[in-house]
Amino acid sequence: MSHRKLYTEFQIRQLECNPNVQHVTDKNITFAPAFKVTAVKAYEAGKTPMEIFKDAGFNLTMLDREKPKGSLTRWRNAYAAHGEAGLLEERRGKDSTGRPSGNKLSTEEKLKRAEAKIKLLEAENDFLKKLEALERQAKQNKR
């Protein structure tokens, strides 16, 4: 494992302004689940990890050089194994034999999860609209 890049207070604040970021610490960036799905689909459409992160508004000089590629590799594996749900919900600790999972969800819990998924899908739609607008703008600026 390569040495991890530490983020400064300024970089953390800058990263937190990006709508594709859920949380940042000095050592780690937690990306928004909708961004992960969009990134995997953009990769499948032929974009490189660097292009995807750049298009999503990330300052690539701020990120660890391996971050885009490593993140996309993990996300693609999760997507291949579990579909979009693998990226939309926290999967760490899932499939472990440690604790029995409570598969009997209450109606309230099912509603909470459905509402969370709706929020995520709305965020993904907003992200895609912004991306389309940026791409249109970029095309117009090239003329």
Describe this structure in words.
The structure is a single chain. The protein is globular, with a radius of gyration of 17 Å. The protein has one domain (9-90, 105-142). Helix 2 packs across helix 4 and helix 2 packs across helix 6 (107-142). The chain has a two-stranded antiparallel ribbon with strand order 1-2. The protein has 6 helices and 2 strands; from the N terminus they run αββααααα. Strand 1 and strand 2 form a beta hairpin. The model has no long low-confidence stretch (mean pLDDT 87). It is 59% helix and 5% strand.
List the helices and strands and how they pair.
Layout: H1 9-16, E1 21-24, E2 29-31, H2 33-44, H3 49-55, H4 67-82, H5 84-88, H6 107-142
Antiparallel strand pairs: 1-2
Pfam family, one: HTH_Tnp_2
Biased composition (Basic and acidic residues): 88-97
Protein name: Transposase
Global structural class = mainly alpha
Number of domains: 1
Bulk shape: globular
Number of helices: 6
Largest sheet: 2 strands, antiparallel
Major β-sheet strand ordering: 1-2
N-to-C SSE string, H for helix and E for strand: HEEHHHHH
Mean of all residue-level pLDDT scores: 87
Organism: Cohnella kolymensis
Protein name: Transposase
Question: What are the key terms here?
Answer:
Transposase; 143 residues; mainly alpha; 59% helix; HTH_Tnp; globular; Homeodomain-like_sf; 6 helices
